[in-house]
Amino acid sequence: MGRESILIYNKHKTMKTYNGWKNYETWVYNLHMTNEGDVMRDYFEQLSSMDAYELGQYLKEELDEQISERNLPSLLCDLLMSASSEIDFREIAEHLLNDYNNEND
């Protein structure tokens, strides 16, 4: 990695938030989740019985399962698991629950 790449990486890692979310990983996961209309409808059916912690755990387990099912080379799997460990699933769950409650009020 060149010096410029290291500086960009370090700048990214030291940011406190990213586009209003805890970090880049949380933002990009939410971006892709909320752009998948069919996926969101499936989650909305389950939201009424879950709190933010339960939904966050569910989302994390779902992503971990998707990563492990891909049969990726170990390097890619390790990198994806590392990135996924940075995701604040509770923040995403709170956002989804808030949207769900606003739509159903």
Q: What count of domains describes the coordinates?
A: 1
Total helices: the number is 6
Largest sheet: none
Low-pLDDT parts are none
The tally of strands reads 0
> Could you report the average pLDDT, rounded to the nearest whole number?
82
Radius of gyration: 16 Å
User: Could you spell the SSE succession in H and E letters?
Assistant: HHHHHH
Work out the strand percent. under 5%
Helix content: over 70%
Q: How would the global form be characterised? A: globular
Structural class, please?
mainly alpha
Distance between the termini: 51 Å
Question: Can you give a write-up of this model?
Answer:
This protein has 6 helices and no strands. It has one domain (3-103). It is mainly alpha-helical and 105 residues long. The radius of gyration is 16 Å and the shape is globular. Helix 4 (52-69) runs antiparallel to helix 5. It has helices spanning 3-14, 24-34, 37-47, 52-69, 74-84, 89-103. The termini are far apart. The model has no long low-confidence stretch (mean pLDDT 82).
Keywords:
mainly alpha
Topology:
Elements (H helix, E strand, L loop, with lengths): L2 H12 L9 H11 L2 H11 L4 H18 L4 H11 L4 H15 L2
Helix pairs in contact: 4-5, 4-6
Overview in brief:
With 105 residues, this protein is mostly helical. It has one domain. The protein contains six helices and no strands.
